RNA sequence: CCGCCCUUAGCUCAGACUGGUAGAGCAGUCGACUGUAGAUCGACUUGUCCCCCGUUCAAAUCGGGGAGGGCGGACCA
């Protein structure tokens, strides 16, 4: 595989790459390392899943991949996770992420898992954090973290340390590439700005698109109807997709199309399968799509009606998450201990 | 350490001065209309009024105590 092919693999299905030329350079020189961090807060959902195929792409492009379970960040962000649940939630996140990577067609054993608290309390790290805190204005830190850290009536100092620590994580993990949702852009732009002055190098940033919610607008972790949970059974997934905002012939805010493009088709492609829609003869009979592009073309042209698309999309999404769902249901203690107030 | 303010539906809040069956908007649920959903109509649901004690025939409302949160002042050898 030549550099151009590796670059295409590493950058496909992304929202933005800063800067692509830098990534090309890294690939030309050898084996770049990439990392993505997840703060173990609420239950993982399908939005997380859409970032997993990219990790497989990175591996396929001959890169090293590290997944950071950012346990301390989960507490620093407005105490989304209570301090004494960090271990249980980290365990749940790691198991779930491994299941998703597996389901997405990659081998979890090829990925290194690291927990934030393993190195974020090191003396060198702490010292550098304080130095950064001394030279970063409050408004700058707020701006960097505004899309990530929860807004609160009583904002805590932790939310300001958050982007600084994430910046130091890049260096501590020795990552050439920082990967995350496009919501992480503010933080990593701060990292590119600051890291060269703090003993590191500006990372190349690869951003995944944030998918629309099923109820229109942004997907909200707190809105059950806007997202598919990894533990939702097939019936529930089909029902949620059936209730989704999905205007005929429109792509904007259309979560159903986005799920197909960024979740279903990449996984079908990996498995060498195609997407089949069962449709009454009255409306044209069954259709099969090999690529998302073909499907979108028909949908935008009005040749594929939402009422026909939805049941097939729901079933396909359910099929994609099924292995993850089964693995989680096989280990009920993971969820019970991570979210005792919900599962007790 | 001192002072002031806040706490009512899932969310944002009104009601408190002047005690009398706890409200609005949004959200949600259900119908109608669409071959989906949304939008739009129509209907419906929602409560530890932060906790305890007291006054009263009657307390979200008045009094006392407490908890949580916010703001300010003071102290600064």
- Rg, nearest Å: 21 Å
Q: What is the SS-derived class?
A: alpha/beta
- From the structure provided, what is the oligomeric state, counting identical versus distinct chains? single chain
User: Per DSSP, what share of the residues sits in E-state strands of 2 or more residues?
Assistant: 5-15%
Fourth CATH level, the homologous superfamily of the largest domain? HUPs
End-to-end gap: 50 Å
Counted up, domains total 2
Indicate the CATH class of the largest domain.
Alpha Beta
CATH T-level fold name of the largest domain: Rossmann fold
Number of strands: 8
Task: Assign an overall shape.
Answer: globular
Reported CATH architecture of the largest domain = 3-Layer(aba) Sandwich
Task: Give me the strand/helix succession.
Answer: HEHEHHEHHEHHHEHEHHEEHHHH
Describe the strand arrangement of the main beta sheet, using strand numbers.
Answer: 1-6-5-2-3-4
Percent helix range = 40-55%
Low-confidence stretches: none
Integer average pLDDT: 93
| Helix count, DSSP H or I runs of 4 or more residues | 16
Biggest beta sheet summary: 6 strands, mixed
List the helices and strands and how they pair.
Layout: H1 3-11, E1 16-18, H2 20-29, E2 33-38, H3 46-49, H4 52-60, E3 64-69, H5 71-76, H6 86-103, E4 111-115, H7 123-135, H8 138-145, H9 158-172, E5 177-181, H10 185-194, E6 204-208, H11 234-242, H12 255-271, E7 275-277, E8 287-289, H13 292-301, H14 306-329, H15 332-338, H16 340-343
The structure holds one RNA strand of 77 nucleotides.
């Amino acid at each position: 595989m030549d550099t151009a092919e590796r670059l295409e693999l590493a950058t496909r299905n992304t929202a933005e790459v800063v800067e692509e030329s830098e990534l090309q350079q890294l690939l030309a020189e050898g084996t770049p390392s990439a990392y993505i961090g997840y703060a173990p807060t609420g239950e993982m959902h399908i939005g997380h899943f859409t970032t997993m195929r990219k990790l497989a792409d990175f591996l396929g492009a001959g890169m090293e991949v590290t997944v950071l379970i950012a346990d301390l960040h989960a507490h620093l962000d407005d105490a989304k996770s209570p301090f004494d649940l960090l271990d249980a939630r980290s365990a749940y996140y790691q198991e779930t992420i491994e299941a998703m990577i597996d389901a997405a067609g990659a081998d979890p054993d090829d990925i290194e898992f690291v927990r934030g608290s393993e190195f974020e309390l090191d003396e060198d790290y702490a010292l550098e954090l304080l130095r950064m805190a001394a030279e970063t204005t409050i408004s700058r830190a707020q701006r960097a973290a505004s899309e990530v850290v929860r807004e609160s009536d009583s904002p805590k100092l932790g939310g300001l340390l958050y982007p600084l620590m994430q910046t130091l994580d890049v260096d501590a993990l020795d990552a050439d590439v920082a990967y995350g949702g496009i919501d992480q852009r503010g933080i990593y732009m701060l990292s590119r700005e600051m890291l060269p002055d703090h003993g590191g190098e500006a990372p190349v940033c690869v951003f995944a698109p944030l998918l629309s919610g099923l109820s229109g607008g942004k997907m909200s972790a707190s809105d059950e109807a806007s997202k598919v949970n990894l533990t939702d059974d097939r019936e529930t997934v089909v029902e949620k997709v059936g209730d989704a905002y999905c205007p005929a012939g429109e792509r904007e805010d259309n979560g159903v199309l986005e799920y197909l493009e960024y979740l279903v088709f990449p996984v079908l492609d990996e498995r060498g399968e195609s997407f089949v829609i069962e449709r009454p003869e009255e409306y044209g009979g069954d259709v099969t799509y090999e690529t998302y592009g073909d499907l979108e073309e028909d949908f935008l042209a009005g040749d594929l009606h939402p009422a026909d698309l939805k049941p097939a999309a729901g079933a396909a999404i359910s099929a994609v998450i099924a292995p993850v769902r089964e693995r989680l249901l096989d280990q009920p203690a993971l969820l019970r201990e991570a979210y005792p107030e919900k599962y007790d």
